[in-house]
Amino acid sequence: MAKPEHEFFPAKTVEFTPCAGVVPQLTERILAADGDSGVATRILRFEPGTDTTPNGVQVHDFWEEVYILEGSFHDTRLGKTFSAGDYACRPPGMEHGPWTSEEGCLTFEVRYRAS
C-alpha cells in the first residue's frame, strides 16, 4: 500500500489527534499516511509548555524531514533551541529529542523509507 492520492484540500479540515507516547500536549495532523509501512506526512503541534521528556529520546527506522513552521522548541539533549525556518533531515537510527516548548511550535514533517 502507498500513501493515498489527494488533490489540494484545506489541511485545517484534518483534525489534530494525540501522538503516540504519554505527552497530551503533543498532537499531530496526519495529512497522508501508509498504514502498512508507517510512512506519513504530518503537521506536529507542541502546545505552549510542552515537555516531551517522558517520551524519551526518539529513534525510528525511517527517514524524517522536519521544517519548523511556527514557534520554537528546545532540544534538551543538544542544549539548543530551534525556531521557525529551521530544518532537519534525520536518517534511520538517528537519536533526537526530547524537547520542550515554552511558546508552542508547529512543524511540517515527511517520513519515508529509502529503497
UniProtKB/TrEMBL annotation:
Domain of life where this protein originates: Bacteria
InterPro entries: ChrR-like_cupin_dom, RmlC-like_jellyroll, RmlC_Cupin_sf
Pfam families from the UniProt entry: Cupin_7
Domain called ChrR-like cupin: residue spans: 14-108
Name under which the protein is recorded: Cupin domain-containing protein
